[in-house]
Amino acid sequence: MKDDQVHLRHLLECLNAIQKYTRPGKEFFLNDRKTQKATLRELQELSESTQRLSSALKEQCPDIPWFATAGFRNVLVHDYLGISILRVWDIIDRDLPVLETAIRSLLSKSGTTRRIYALIGPDTVAQDASESLGKDRDDDRT
Length: 142
Hints:
This protein is an all-alpha fold. Helices cover 83% and strands 0% of the residues. The protein is built from 8 helices and no strands.
């Protein structure tokens, strides 16, 4: 479950970054290549992280299309020339809020979200998730 918590926090980090990048709105997103690229990278990490969640955790939110979300990573990585930026906007606008609600629900079931946000705030949560993920990667190499 600890690994699930790390990946759920990382998912929130990705979602927060996407919200920040796209806050200026649809027209800005559609016309700013740098924002598009940054957002696509966050979506790639988000999709990758969903693959690392346990089946038991995913079963707690059966309405989330976990398989399709994870598979979106392959589209982003391998079919990058075929990506429709309008479709990406639709995903950001329609699908990501539902995913965020599910992730926050999963974190709150363990009390993690309330405890972390109360103590250190959302920006530090994102930094903590990044550091935890980096530590896990280092541990895997040894």
